[in-house]
């Protein structure tokens, strides 16, 4: 390893991943533990247990600890030089929660270097199976929370999102209502991210503003817990959560356990961990005005926002790399499967023919417009196929090429409309960073570029949360001096320019937004 190294961790749903980078941001080590395959004793599927009600979804917390023991042992046997690591940070799947039993702070602090961590911590959790983001069992807690604070929009104004079943406040409320004594025995509640940071710190790590915004509990503007949200979820919750901190905070030096057991330097700093989506924003090096669009099974958008306007659809989170800014997260369920269905119906199952249809039709589709939701959409909550001609009359079908363009323009216009509802503004320097399967199709990207009137770049994001965590580790060391993440990661590979807006085309859908 070169003179200094930095580690980025990603505690995601299916695996634990680590990346080490050097001062030049080159990846010098990479490894992962797949929960199902490498830790079969926990009997997870995709890293989780879906309970018999089909709504409750949990992961065993000791599985995460054991995965950390395992991956560190792998690094040690491969000769990884831990003593060069100057700082580390990490990401966790968002919303999941960990419940530490009374007395665990002491055990964590005094972890013996003779034992693996999962032995030391085996009795530390009052809830052995942590609820995770896939859980949707808290509908009644969600409606109570919205009611308690004066409605869904009001909750969104305070916390950045209306009540969602996976959001941590509602999960905590469920645990308290079903099992008050378990709640009472709990001295600390962590997110997956702050739990993972705690393992390295040897003390309870605070929740960072960005991941804290996925709880329905944090006032995203003031960056303090909302007393009315806390009170609606469970009693004495503030003391169990600790005070939230800026995402770039240095939490302290690594715990003596890692110094003795693995040879880390006592100077190695732990930078606050955050959620996987915020960490990906850092990994993709999003800047003010930028949008990242992942075109996969479902389509996901990350937006950099200066002045957010929380809405009933989508989430506003505090920005993980700039405390003055925000990020928004929008998820569209009808992504690739919808595009594939129309390709099969209108282009004989061929992407080439699909692309030709996009080339043979004009931007704006002569006023023909469609919204295509084979499955119940999240953003907006709607289902079915809805087509409108240039006179805004509902029609039952379109010629095949018109249908194809209507689908793609409709999908991207919906993204722009919902992004703008959340306060997003296309700026002269806006870049669209596209990833995922459909980002390989230039004709689709051309439509995206025309709808947003901005250049589209492609970027490889396979490791963006992990890499973003390593970047954040470097940034954490200098953030207090006013250096931005963008300055720190100047040497990282640039995204590739794919297409620019077609000249002479008025913004597609500009008149209808
Ligand atoms: C975001 C969400 C998921 C998890 C997955 O709101 O629930 O993206 O973060 O890891």
TrEMBL record:
Carbohydrate kinase FGGY N-terminal domain sequence ranges: 129-283
Cited Pfam families: FGGY_C, FGGY_N
Alphabetized InterPro entries for the sequence: ATPase_NBD, Carb_kinase_FGGY, D-XK_euk, FGGY_C, FGGY_N
Catalytically driven reaction(s): D-xylulose + ATP = D-xylulose 5-phosphate + ADP + H(+)
Keywords attached to this entry: ATP-binding, Carbohydrate metabolism, Kinase, Nucleotide-binding, Transferase, Xylose metabolism
Molecular function GO terms recorded: kinase activity
Role according to the record: Phosphorylates D-xylulose to produce D-xylulose 5-phosphate, a molecule that may play an important role in the regulation of glucose metabolism and lipogenesis.
Name of the protein in question: Xylulose kinase
């Amino acid at each position: 390893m070169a003179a200094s190294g930095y580690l980025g961790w990603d505690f995601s749903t299916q695996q634990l991943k680590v990346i080490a980078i050097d001062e030049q941001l080159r990846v010098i080590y990479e490894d992962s533990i797949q929960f199902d395959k490498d830790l079969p004793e926990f009997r997870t599927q995709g890293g989780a247990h879906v309970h018999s009600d089909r709504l409750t979804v949990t992961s065993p917390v000791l599985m995460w600890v054991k995965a950390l023991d395992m991956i560190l042992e792998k690094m040690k046997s491969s000769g990884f030089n831990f003593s060069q690591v100057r700082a580390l940070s990490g990401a966790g799947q968002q919303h999941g929660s960990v419940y530490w039993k009374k007395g665990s702070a002491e055990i964590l602090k005094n972890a013996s270097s003779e034992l693996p961590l999962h032995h030391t911590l085996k009795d530390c959790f009052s809830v052995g199976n942590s609820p995770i983001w896939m859980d949707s069992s808290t509908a009644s807690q969600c409606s109570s929370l919205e009611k308690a604070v004066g409605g869904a929009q009001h909750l969104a104004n305070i916390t950045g999102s209306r009540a969602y079943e996976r959001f941590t406040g509602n999960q905590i409320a469920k645990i308290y209502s079903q099992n008050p004594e378990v709640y009472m025995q709990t001295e600390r509640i962590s997110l997956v991210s702050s739990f993972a940071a705690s393992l390295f710190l040897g003390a309870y790590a605070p929740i960072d503003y960005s991941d804290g915004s996925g709880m329905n509990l944090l006032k995203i503007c003031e960056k303090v817990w909302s007393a009315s949200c806390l009170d609606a979820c469970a009693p004495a919750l503030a003391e169990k959560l600790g005070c939230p901190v800026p995402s770039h905070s240095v939490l302290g030096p690594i715990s003596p356990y890692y110094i003795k057991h693995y040879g880390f330097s006592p100077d190695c700093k732990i930078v606050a961990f955050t959620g996987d989506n915020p960490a990906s924003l850092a990994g993709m090096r999003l800047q003010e005005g930028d949008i990242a669009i992942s075109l996969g099974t479902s389509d996901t958008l990350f937006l950099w926002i200066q002045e957010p306007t929380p809405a009933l659809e989508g989430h506003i989170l505090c920005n993980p790399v700039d405390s003055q800014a925000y990020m928004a997260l929008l998820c569209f369920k009808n992504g690739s499967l919808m595009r594939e269905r129309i390709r099969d119906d209108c282009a004989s199952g061929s992407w080439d023919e699909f692309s030709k249809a996009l080339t043979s039709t004009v931007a704006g589709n002569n006023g023909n417009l469609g919204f295509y939701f084979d499955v119940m959409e999240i953003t907006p909550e709607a289902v079915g196929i809805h087509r409108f001609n240039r006179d805004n009359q509902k029609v039952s079908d379109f010629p095949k090429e018109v249908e194809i363009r209507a689908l793609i323009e409709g999908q991207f216009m919906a993204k722009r409309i919902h992004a703008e509802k959340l306060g997003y503004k296309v700026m002269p320097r806006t870049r669209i960073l596209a990833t995922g399967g459909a980002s390989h199709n230039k004709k689709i990207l051309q439509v995206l570029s025309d709808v947003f009137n901005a250049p589209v770049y492609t970027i490889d994001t396979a490791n963006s949360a992990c890499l973003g965590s390593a970047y954040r580790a470097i940034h954490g060391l200098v953030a207090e001096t006013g250096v931005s993440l963008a300055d720190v990661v100047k040497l990282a590979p640039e995204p590739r320019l794919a297409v620019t807006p077609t000249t002479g085309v008025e913004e597609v859908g500009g008149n209808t937004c």
